[in-house]
Each structure stands twice: as structure tokens, then as C-alpha cells.
Amino acid sequence: MHIETQAELLKLSRLLEAEEGSLDFLDGQDISAMAAFRASVSGFFYEQHQDSYQRLAGISKLVPTGASAKLATTVLGSVLAAGIASELPPERAIKLADKLPEDFMAKLCIHLEPKHSRSLLAAMPDKIVATVARTLLAMNEHITLARFVGVIQPSALKQVSASIEDGEAMVKIALYLEDKSKLDALMGLLSESQQRATLKAATDHELWPAVLSLNGYLNTELRGRMGNLVAEQGDTALSHIIEVASEQRLWTNLLQAVNAMDSKHQQNVVNLEKLREPAIMESLITTVAAENSWDELLTLLPLLDQAHLAPALDVLTERQPQSLDAALNHAHDSNLLGLFGHLPDSEVARVADVLKSNAADSWQAFAARNGDAHEIEALKAALA
Description:
The chain has 3 domains: about 50-180, MgtE N-terminal fold, CATH 1.25.60; about 185-270, no CATH class; about 275-384. The chain is an all-alpha fold and about 375 residues long. It has helices at about 5-15, 30-45, 50-60, 65-85, 90-100, 100-110, 120-125, 125-140, 140-150, 155-160, 165-175, 185-190, 190-205, 210-215, 220-230, 235-250, 250-260, 265-270, 280-290, 295-300, 305-320, 320-330, 335-340, 345-360, 360-370, 375-384.
């Protein structure tokens, strides 16, 4: 099961108070559709009691804040209090929050309905947000913390992120984000030591599927920074990451990370012994073809030494000869020229045969566009 599907099913099972894993039959469904369904159900549950929340919120305004806080903790409980809080004016809710115990506030936040509590969370002072976040972190409430990231003020997010030293927690919070476009902001706030802790946790706690999946949402600068830190973990860790990319079909995400690394790290990664395994290379090219991520792969192929280029050519010419036609149709010409210019003399004839039999029209169009390119002179001669 894809890691992001696992995350979505966990959030859905939690909402429905179902056992973890009991919704695994939904594997294969569209993730965005499941998220939309979850949001609809959450809103439905809330709206069934919204009139009561509004009436109780109105009564609360007539009672001193100290007394309201006492009633919340001794009579109402965190579930009902969460609904009432969402119907209070933010300024009133902030006054009440100052009177509530930290653990009660944290439990209340767990039960806030995301859509109806956005304005409340956005208005909360940084100090209160940071205090509640520390309590939620101690409770391993990563899903709740992930909801915070999308709506709290940037200054509050900075305080919250600075307090998270647990790399495993950071990975899980990032994975559970509802809006992955917020990931850049979150990861960009981390210090280098926090980033290292996050990547170490991925190794220690088998979280590389999550980290690789999340990499697809990062900007190029962050990908490069994190990628360089990954490369520093050594060949054993990198080989394991390659296995994860193969098992989870996360090759495109890994290729994006490698492309953003420093050149010395790129050279090391693409020439790892693990990539010479036929099954690994076939998995890589199969995924690239399916996801049309040829440019991410082809920019790196010229960095391969001959021992590592041979397995790639075996797949492209023998086991998946149709892939060259797909590459010619979808990749940028400059990247294709990089591949063809990197071919050893001993491989030119083999590649030319496949082009002639499986990609003749695509090759002719490509050659016409790049008639003066010296990188394809040998292939043109072989095909003449």
C-alpha cells in the first residue's frame, strides 16, 4: 500500500473510530476522493450538533470566563467543549483558553472540526499555540499537529517547529499534512540538526517511504539540501532507500532528490552497486515510463560508469525496447542527446537496432530536429 494511502486511511479510521487497518479494503481508491469523503463526514458529524454548540456558546458569553472554564473541564468535557469553542468569537475563545489546563486544551484540539475551527486556530496567540503543541507532541498527536500547520500564523509555526527535536514526529506530522503545499514552509524552518534528526529517524524507524513521498512536494532548494544530508549517511543507507523506491514505486521522487544534490553526491548515488541489479533497474525504468519522468532519469544517465550503464541499456534494448520510443516522444532533446552521447562504441549497434525496429518514426523526427548534434553521429551512421 502506498504510504500516502496508509496515512489517509489512518485519518479516516480515526474519524470513524474504527480499528487501524479495518479500512484497508479501500486501498486503490483515489486518495483525493477519500480525503474529500473524510472532510464531508467530519462536517456532517459537526453539523448534526451545530445548533446545540451555538446555543451553548451563546450561554457561555453570559458566564464569567473562569466559571465557563470550570464548567468545560468538570461538566462538558473536551468533545463538547471543542464544538462550543468553534462557535465562539475568537476573542472570547482566547480568554477561555488562558483559563484552561494545558492537557484539557490539547484534548479539546484533538476534537476540533477542521473546517469550522480554522478561524479559531488562526487567531490563537503564539504562546498558547506553542504550549498546546508541546502537549500534543508528548501525546504523539501527530495528526492533530499536522492540522495546526495549515492554519496557524507563521510566527506560531516558527515557535512550534523550533520545539520539535524528535525526527520521527516531524516525519509523521509532515506526512499527515492536509495541504502539502505547506511542507516547504515547515521544512524550511528546521535547523540543520533538526533536518538531520528527521532523516536519521527515517532510517531508524523505517520511514523512508514517507520521506521519499514527501520529497515530491519540496522545492528544488530544499530537495537539494535534504538530499545532500541523505547522501552523507553512506552507501548502506542509500542502498536501502533505493530498495524502498523500488518497492513503493517512488523512483520519480528519488530521481528528483538526486537531481537536486551536489554533483559529487549525484555521482556516488547513481553508481551504487544496488543499481546494477537487473530487477532494480527494470523497476526504475518501468516506473519512469509509467509516470513519464524521463527527464529526471536521463539527466543522470551520463553520470553512470559503464558498469552501471549496461544494466540500463539491457532494459531499454532487450526487456522494454518500447521504452526508447516513449523517451523520444516525451523527454527533452537535450537530455536525450546526453544519453546518446554517453553510449560506448560497443553499444551503438544494439541501440540502433532497437531504434530501427521499435522507434523509427520517433527517431527520424528527433534526428531531423538535431541534425547538427555530434552526440548522435555514431547512431546516424549505424542507421544509415
